[in-house]
Write a structure and sequence with these properties.
By secondary structure, the chain is an alpha+beta fold. The protein has a domain of 132 residues: Winged helix-like DNA-binding domain superfamily/Winged helix DNA-binding domain (Arc Repressor Mutant, subunit A, Orthogonal Bundle). It is 21% helix and 22% strand. The protein has a 4-stranded antiparallel beta sheet with strand order 10-9-1-11. Strands 6-8-7 form a 3-stranded antiparallel beta sheet, covered by helices on one side. Strands 2-3 form a two-stranded antiparallel ribbon. Strand 4 and strand 5 form a beta hairpin. The longest helix is centred in the middle third of the chain and has 13 residues. The chain starts with 12 loop residues before the first strand and ends in a 23-residue tail after the last strand.
Length: 233
């Protein structure tokens, strides 16, 4: 069964009343189809005047506010098994949306969540309506025949813009150009004037200031002694 795109009702307008729990349940799904779609299918079968039906040679009457819903017919229309149909109707019944009365011929479904409907400008109260919530509680819905229904669609993943991926911040680029150490971490060198001090100018004997040459420190090798003279082999 596919989600409906247009509402089909036997009247111009109808009003439904239900609990908040029932309203949230209708937003769930059964076999990949929204539960509200199954309820709307039952509403399309609801009689607004007395109807006489015949099945297997037996006649029975459908009163206003009732729907003829045999398990076999609903399973064929909805495209699910009879057990799934029975379980779904039980869920509707537990939440005060419908009431199912079975007989040897068929199953009569009372649409107890429908409060009233309107035909030719005339408001008709549903005789099978059962008040489950107070006037200032629950959820009240007004449905109109032929109303377009929006289907829920999964939003596709947005494709990344290659231009935006290639564009990088200047700071990021400068970090990636730094050499990489052996353990895979970025080695960023920072120059600090305290780490590389410059030799200050020193006054000489004539009170003239001279600049000393920066000489690297003398390291002691294997063939040098403490006084700087080369050791004899």
């Amino acid at each position: 069964m596919k989600n409906l795109k247009q509402l089909v009702l036997p009247c111009y307008k109808l009003e439904m009343a239900m609990t908040v729990e029932a309203w949230y349940f209708l937003h769930g799904s059964t076999d990949g189809v929204c539960n509200l779609t199954y309820l709307l299918s039952l509403l399309s079968k609801m009689a607004v005047s007395e109807v006489l039906n015949t099945k297997r040679g037996l006649s029975y009457a459908i009163h206003p506010g009732e729907a003829d819903g045999s398990m076999l017919a609903l399973a064929k229309e909805w495209g699910i098994g009879r057990k799934a149909v029975s379980r779904l109707l039980e869920d509707f019944s537990e939440r005060g949306l419908i009431r199912v009365d079975s007989n040897p011929v068929t199953s009569i479904i009372d649409m107890v969540c429908v409060k009233s409907w309107m035909i030719a400008g005339r408001l008709i109260e549903n005789p099978t309506y059962r008040q489950t919530v107070k006037a200032y509680e629950g959820v009240r819905i007004f449905l109109f025949n032929g109303q377009k229904l929006e289907t829920l669609r999964r939003s596709s993943a947005r494709k990344k813009n290659p231009k935006a991926v290639n564009e990088e911040e200047p700071d990021t680029i400068s970090l990636r150009q730094q050499p990489v150490s052996g353990n895979g971490d970025l080695s960023v060198t920072h120059e600090c004037p305290l780490e590389n001090p410059v030799t200050p100018p020193m006054p000489n004997a004539n009170s003239e200031t001279i600049q000393q040459e920066d000489k690297p420190p003398i390291t002691q090798g294997e063939q040098t002694i403490y006084d700087g003279n080369t050791s004899y082999m």
